[in-house]
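During the no-cost extension, the postdoctoral fellow (Dr. R.K.) reprocessed legacy sequence entries with the updated structure-token encoder. One reprocessed record is reproduced below for audit purposes.
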Amino acid sequence: MAQFDKHPGEKALADLPSEPVRSFETGFGGDVVLPADPEYERERAVWNGMIDKYPAIIARCAGTADVVSAVTFAREQDLPLAVRCGGHNVAGTAVCDGGLVVDLSPMHGVRVDSENWTARVDGGATLGDVDHETQLFGLATALGAVSETGVAGLTLNGGYGHLSRQYGLAMDNLRSVDVVTADGKVHTASADRNEDLFWGLRGGGGTLGIVTAFEFELHEVGPEVDAFFIWFHADDMTDVMACFLEWTDDAPREAGVLAFTAHVPDLEEFPEEAWGEPAVAMLGTARGDLEDDVFEPLRSSATPIADLSGSMAYADLQSMLDEDYPDGLRYYWKSIFLTDVTDEVVDIMERYTESAPSALSTVDLWHLGGAVADVPQDATAFWHRDKPYMLNFEANWEDEADDDANVTWGRDGIAEAAELAVASGSYGNFPGLNEDPAKLRFGDNYERLADLKTTYDPETLFGADGSIAARTDTD
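Re-encoded structure tokens follow.
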């Protein structure tokens, strides 16, 4: 095959000296996947079907020693490096063109200490892996809301989910981490050991190294929880949202609700005459000794299209959205934080839902606060914890021909919201395609994180896409 016919991965591999490549393969404990291997096409694919990149080498790590070997090889050969855990980052940062993918997905063990209420979680584990083990003891940690999401990416960028208002962000539940830095060294970081590294890893989004293990604090949750899932006609948007915002003013921390606008899916759980219509819905959960129905004010805000609420296993709640976000669908998600939800915000949600190019897309309004806001903004690298709401545009679609229309829809919606006085910042787990400056994510924590980046990753081996770059002599 002529060089000009080769994809970026083949070209980069051909340019590497053969002896170091052979040495790397020989000393690697896991599997090294190259472009000519039959599993290459499968292994280079990530959750977002819009991402189509061709690495030179995919290193499927069996343990921390393999991670060190991969980091060292990429640094010495001056290769771009990507880190794959769950592969769910919507911007596709888990894969790169012409570089090396450090794939931690084979490292997905979870070990629960039920006496001390902690769990040690390997860097490639998913939320479902964690819930499967912790729920055996009626325990859980604060993670996200889709069980196939990787723990690492979710946690290092913050981590919102059903338990956030009660127990904080996923990263707020960390006791310690093991991390491989750009020099190939392995560190343990915690509140009293490598404290500066621990500060930056919590919210820094993996820009300082590759976390191979997390130690989480656990909480008594489940096995059954009260789930709240209700849909209303879009014509009732004003009344429903007014009731939702009134409810959030004094909602107990043991309860959380995500409000979103969408189109009614063509499913038997919904009346057929409502299929495809714009709607406003709410998804949430309550735990503990609350009043009989903490969600009753929300339920009675209008006549519902469907009420799918009820008691369910916590693990089932965590996985109930999985089928809505399958591997290979095309995604563009972008967010902005809000100090208040004004009439203008509600209007944006309503108008953009009606104009969405895809009926699979949603506009989400996350209710935050609670334990998330208890932590000072400068206590970790995560800055925007003081904001009580987050607006997120989820563009979800099937056909490549519709890429431009759906990406434009999501970008335009967030751009319009950004003009409002109540809106600012961005969230690392809903980053669009990382087209915005990193300072939007890190706020006043940016300078300290840049200093740490310069110390631990002076050549910017990690997070070259949409993250913080190390300082140079001209900075």
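Residues 403-418 form the longest helix (16 residues). The chain has a mean pLDDT of 95. The remaining legacy entries will be reprocessed before the final report is submitted.
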